[in-house]
Amino acid sequence: MNFFQHNTQHFAYTNDLLTIDIFGGVEGHLMDGLFATLKIGLADSSRPPIRHNLDLFNDNQMTRLITKVCERLEIGHSVVSKSLSEVVERLEAERLQLFEATQTPADTLQPLSKEEEQTAIKSLKAKDLTNRTCKAFEVMGICGEAHNSMILFLAMLSRMLTEPISVICMAGSGAGKSYLIDKIGDCVPPAEIREYTQLTAASLYHHSKNELAGKVLLIEDLFSAKGAMVPIRSLQSNKRISKTMTIKDRTGDLRAMDFVVEGPLCVIGCTTYDKVFAENANRCLLLTLDNSEEQDRRIMEYQKKLKAGLIDGGKALLTQYKMMNMQRVLKPVRIINPYAPLIELPKETLHPRRTLQLVLNFIDTVTFYHQYQREEKVIEATGETYLETHPDDIKWTFDLLKPVLFVKSDELSSALRSFYQWLVNWSDENQDFNAATIRQFSKINPRTLSRYLKELTEYNYLKITGGNRHTTGYTYTFTEKQGTTLTDSIQQQIDEVMKKVQAGQAKTKSK
Predict the structure, then answer these.
(1) Residue 21: pLDDT above 80?
(2) Are the C-beta atoms of residues 388 and 338 closer than 8 Å to each other?
């Protein structure tokens, strides 16, 4: 008996009497049947072969095929039955091997050596841990974006907690959104991250029950995953999704089948849109990337050094591996924040309930990351150990999230706010201006410029002073320059919260 594979779509079986060709390959993702197209003929015979398509796991179909082969080729029933049984066994083995290959690979990282573990713990005990982490990102090739990098890293780290944090990066095309999340994602162990270019709603339900639990889900373009956002939102809020479908079993009867996928998970997505659908935005931290000329210069300098061979790629990989090791030595532990009752959001914050939850979860993540610098305490009633949040964790959270709180408090989109700030700075000596004048100093797309001016007028940041829509265009002036009012208000309220937290700490110490 010989069994060999010509290619992925053609297998062949031969013995002393029969030759059996199997066309179409085997499906590695379906396990409830073994569908194949067979060509069965006599070895060294001019008798026409038999061609048949069937499910090799269906006993009735197999019985009819055996009878048909015996009659047509005039051969014994036992010979045909044995030959087909050997074919099924080999195809089943091939299919199982293919199925295993299509599954998500397990974490292939070797256990940390004692020296690697000690080095990782030593790094986590460093007093300037957060600053060292930001410098590590620079070594890995991330230019600027220190705050955004740190927020993304801590959000991905929150996958290890019961309340993961999700992030949406907003920037124009070519601003480096995918590059940034990919670089930070390289610090996460491979088995704990899933990266998708495109995602459909149906595909989420076909993961195994706990396959996504505690994972990071990277989506390069949220627009391509638009249809999947409803189940993603359920995974974020309810930490599970479920769906019932009607399927047909082997007997042809219809029955209901439940699909359940458990969370929680951390979702990291990118978009080129300057506005995000509210149902998605209020569940996430919103990051706006640096699009300044200074940032362009930093990135181009790095690109030139990289091409000139002046960047040590080995050092970048080693840093990435060390960052991964630091996460691997972190242990699951409960976080208790005694200062939570003192924390208040800026009064201008939109959707304050979910935003406050995001801020509190972020504080927990910062405490979790500093667990080797926090005293482990015990709840006497239950004997459960926990870590207590330190005021420094709250300070770091507000330092990192201040721009995020500004975005969440601002009625203008981040792109529109950037344009407005540019307009304020540019128009110091130009009290009245129109679109044509702005275009002389800015490369902004005319249609985008027209939309921005219209929205600023509707929000009462600008007012029309003259001109004509169809000829010269409208002339605009500021109603009142609102440059730093919101920023100052947010900073003032953050300072007040920190004073309360520090007073609470002093009171606890005195006791």
Answers:
(1) yes
(2) yes
